[in-house]
TrEMBL record:
Residues 280-323 form the PG-1098 ferredoxin-like domain. InterPro entries: PG_1098_Fer (IPR054168), SAM-dependent_MTases_sf (IPR029063), Thump-like (IPR041497). It holds the Pfam family PG_1098_Fer. This is Uncharacterized protein. Residues 324-394 form the THUMP-like domain. PANTHER family: S-ADENOSYLMETHIONINE-DEPENDENT METHYLTRANSFERASE RELATED, TRIMETHYLGUANOSINE SYNTHASE. It comes from Pontibacter mucosus.
Length: 395
């Protein structure tokens, strides 16, 4: 594996925040340095600043090609995953850059990092040494070959199958990803009694529960209201899909995660109450919406829904700590340009569409309302099947 000289490391660190295109144009100023190679390191570090600060802050850390950084977990989601399982031995069968392995190493006595790409595996192993992760063993092989020769059993096998095809198209069906978890399931259960699987947020949860069959817990993990991954814990004795607990997790900076746990059976049994917009309006976080807690959420928190398909909630009194965004409802308007602009002297507003026949772009084009300001407009459908606009301010 290629490591960098002190002079090369100094170049990377001094230019870490510089424009990489400009650096390439100035390459002739540094004839003694492989500028193109160093710029690739700078580019990867720039992509990783928010996502992987532990690596970026270490001056000697080596980064793979940018795509590997983009595909890796963030440190926040990796830390959350590591809090879900613990034991003596975890095998990360799709190790990649090693972010998940590093955090699992804090919950397990030993972690085996398996990566089929030799260059990426060497980079990960080198960084593990820099970051003091002495309990990680890194092996260059495929998940399938490792399992065939593995002796004994692990406490947990972890997989994050590759979700890009040969032409870099994004994939999300389990059978299209590499390795094919559905094909490997019998072998996986020979080697461990628990399997933690990370999938694309695009994969339908109900479909995954049916295909995997042995799921005991699901986590939908969002980072600052953007769903990043869905996790499935598989064990030999699993409940029926309708009784599998699913937890919606929204990770927030400098705050406790927003959590909601329910089952599909609870969702189907819930009896929502519908009402016209009251003093406060609530929009659930993205993890709750992906997990499918539409009816259960309102009943659980004693909130009324505006419409079966709008997934907006309302109450007369403010509900503190709602898992999402909370607004004071200032007025309710028809979808009429003149009427709306009366509330917007600067012709600016933040627009959200929920169960409404037009897109945000269409609404902005027709009304001339620009993005920004402190007013929030929810274009939705009320319980009387009428299109309405809720004029709101952030709580």
């Amino acid at each position: 594996m290629r490591t960098f000289t002190p002079e090369e490391q100094d170049f990377i660190l001094r230019h870490q925040q510089h424009d990489v295109a400009q650096l390439m144009l100035q390459a002739s100023r540094y004839p003694q340095l492989p500028v193109q190679e160093l710029v690739q390191q700078i580019k990867a570090r720039q992509k990783a600043v928010q996502k992987l600060p532990t690596w970026v802050q270490h001056p000697q850390a080596v980064f793979p090609v940018a795509l590997s950084v983009e595909q890796s977990s963030s440190e926040e989601t990796a830390a959350y995953k590591a809090s879900l399982v613990r034991g003596k031995l975890l095998v990360d069968l799709t190790g990649g850059f090693g972010v998940d392995s590093l955090y699992f190493a804090r919950s397990f006595a030993q972690v085996v990092h398996v990566e089929q790409n030799q260059e990426l595996q060497e980079v990960a192993r080198y960084n593990f040494g820099l970051l003091g992760a002495a309990n990680i063993q890194s092996i260059n092989t495929t998940a399938e070959d490792f399992l065939q020769t593995m002796e004994g059993k692990a406490d947990v096998l972890y997989l994050d199958p590759a979700r890009r095809g040969h032409h870099e198209q994004k994939l999300h069906l389990l059978q299209d990803c590499e390795p094919d978890v559905l094909h490997l399931l019998p072998l996986l259960f020979q080697k461990a009694d628990a399997i933690l699987l990370k999938t694309s947020p695009m994969l339908d949860i109900e479909q995954a529960l049916q295909e995997l069959a042995q799921v005991v817990q699901v986590w939908v993990v969002a980072l600052q209201n953007e769903v990043k991954e869905v996790l499935y814990l598989l064990q030999p004795a699993a409940p029926a899909p309708a009784d599998v607990p699913r937890t919606a997790v929204n990770l927030l900076p400098n705050a406790a995660p927003q959590l909601l746990t329910f089952t599909r059976a609870q969702e189907e049994a819930a009896n929502p109450i519908y009402a016209d917009p009251l003093a406060y309006v609530y929009e659930p976080n993205a993890a709750i919406l992906k997990a499918g807690a539409y009816r259960f959420l309102g009943q659980h928190l004693q909130l009324s829904k505006l419409h079966p398909n709008s997934h907006l909630y309302t109450s007369a009194q403010l509900l503190p700590h709602f898992p999402g965004r909370s607004f004071r409802c200032l007025d309710v308007s028809r979808y009429n340009k003149k009427e709306l602009l009366k509330h917007l002297p600067e012709k600016k507003a933040n627009i959200t569409v929920r169960n409404f026949p037009e897109s945000v772009a269409d609404i902005r084009r027709k009304t001339g309302i620009k993005e920004g300001g402190h007013t929030y407009l929810f274009f939705t459908t009320d319980r009387h099947q009428k299109p309405v606009v809720l004029i709101c301010g952030k709580v």
